[in-house]
Amino acid sequence: MRLIALTATPLLASTAIATIHPAPLRAQSASPSSFSLPESLPQDTTVKVDGSSSMSQINAALQKRFQEKFAGSNINLASGGTDEALKALIKGDVDLAAVGRSLTDAEKKEGLVAVPLSREKIAIIVGPENPFKGSLTFAQFAKIFRGEITDWSEVGGTGGKIRFVDRPDFSDTRWALSRYKVFKEANFETGANATQVDRDDTSEVVKALGTDGISYAIASQVMGQDNVRVLAMHDTLPDNPQYPFSQPRGYVYKGTPNPGVQAFLGFATSEAGQGVIANAKKHGLDFMDAKCIFDDDTVTIEDDRFGYGEQRFISLGLLQNCVIAIVHTENKDTIRIISARRATRNEERSYFEQFTN
After folding, report:
1. What domains sit in the chain, N to C, each tagged with a CATH number?
2. CA angle at residue 319 from 98 to 199, to 5 degrees?
3. What backbone phi and psi angles, to 5 degrees, belong to 117?
4. Confidence band, pLDDT 50/70/90 cuts, at residue 276
5. What is the pTM of this model?
6. Closest by alpha carbon to 195, among 209, 180, 211?
7. C-alpha atoms less than 13 angstroms from C-alpha of 206 in its C-beta half-sphere
8. What does the alpha-carbon distance between residue 46 and residue 227 come to, in Å, rounded to a whole number?
9. What band does 317 get if pLDDT is binned at 50, 70 and 90?
């Protein structure tokens, strides 16, 4: 994606970006803790992971590669939210919590230990048909969030009401924004022009944008998509290292982790695991197989990790914004998720050739 050049005086622009970082989250790169990666594990090894939906892609990608490496192991995944996952971890109901925020002091006193994996940029988004195509400042976005700016003309756009689409209060991404100084200058509350989605799900946020909405999302979930447009902040896009809004992502364990947890964390923090994470962030749920039942031109995906249910299906094309290809076997057909972003027709043809040659 082409980066828009900074139009402000370089020193002023750099200063504006530098001063936005929240005190608790100064580090912009993670330093994963050291865990050993064993040569083998017992075949009945099971690790229960629950947590933030923002970690779903990373969890699924690591699950697949880990289970391939350790035959017979089972990584059970759920996405009940960070707060509920941490409560379950304290009770001993799960082995790991997948989180998109830092631990509180109270949580640390419960014996919880965080293992950072990466940081994820937070993009500011509008619908593709939204007429506003300018850049926002940090202060402008914070004022839009609070309902102090309610018309696009106030930020250099064509006149029209602004509707702010907010994530649920328990959202890790929402929490991450609250840690920045620009959002601490007033109560962290949205105004009368805001609506709030029920689930911490970027697809739900995108659906709610329309032509007048604005919101925020994990950058890797929206960059390059044609059903959403990412706005620049101070003429800087999220794929620029200077772009400041971000949130931490990682795992949390309690006490002394069991061998299965140690192995999973060892894999997640290894060079191979970090490569899996980087690929998941870049490409989404790449090359994840899902079982399907075919009935004429309707397909039902049985794998609930994707949650797509019954969808209309054309041999090769787009399924819920995913490029897909049928993989034929002797006894059944399966469907392969090639990319979690919408693809061009040329890309579809390329994938088709890849899987039919």
Report:
1. 10-20+120-247 (3.40.190.10), 46-119+248-283 (3.40.190.10), 288-356 (no CATH)
2. 40
3. -115, -45
4. confident
5. 0.68
6. 209
7. 19
8. 38
9. very low
